[in-house]
Amino acid sequence: MMRAMFSAISGLQAHQTMLDVAANDVANVNTIGFKGEMTTFQDALSQQTRGASSPTAGQGGTNAIQVGLGVQLGAVENEMGAGATQQTGNPLDLAIQGDGLFRVAPGSAIGSGSGYQYTRAGNFGLDSSGNLVTQGGDFVVGYAANAGPPVTFPMTTANETKITVPSGGSDVTIGSDGVVSYVDSAGVTQKLAQISMAKFPNEAGLQRVSSNLYEQTNNSGGPTNAVAGDTATGMGTLQAGAVEMSNVDLASEFTTMITAQRGYEANSRVISMADEMLQNLVHIGQ
Prior knowledge:
- It is a single chain.
- By secondary structure, the chain is an alpha+beta fold.
- The chain folds into two domains: 112 residues, no CATH class; 160 residues, no CATH class.
- The chain is built from two helices and 20 strands.
- Strands 7, 8, 11, 12, 13, 14, 15 and 18 form an eight-stranded antiparallel beta sheet that branches.
- A hairpin with a 3-residue loop joins strand 16 and strand 17.
- It is elongated.
- The two termini are 21 Å apart.
């Protein structure tokens, strides 16, 4: 009976976590670039009452007798599939068509080789200094254009830069390859920089931080830096004037919430039954 209570308590905790994860997904159903999560369980250790035995000439073999001790949280997995694309009409908004993430960083980290964060949320804007930034104020990392001709964008750490539209520049546009252009005060179109992107061997292993950002972890692997449309890395292209919305499926989340509620209810019932049995045991002989 005590084992039943311990198992049921672990079930309550696991299904509460399952509901917590689903609730967070539903709360972020309209968050730009948000990726949903999936909860999985695994059984806990089992108590072995009798071990397995081999068959002999006089008696057949027997299986082990084990009593399970409940459930534990197996994983909360990031679901990194693409969300729907929503048109905004803002030329600075970007949606990634395919694989990859934007690289963003504070100014002190750009060109240092460390301190970067990553996002699929492409709702960018310009600050008062003309810098292309996220909604949280982080700089979008790019590769500076050389003098040319032809104008190229060397993909080196030393060539990383903030993307800053000069004073007097106007009509900023971003191509599908991430090249940022503007019209200068003389009315000439100038290429400014090319947006840097990254891929990981295991994107689901990235760690979430606030403001739609991810950080590298030991299990995500190291980033492969490239630019949009790079065929060697399989990097996706960019669509300007649009953003990628959350990939949360409300119908699936409602099903998950019902499943979590039923599991919680069933484990609560087990605790009630075990408690009644313990009461009967206490009252024997009274």
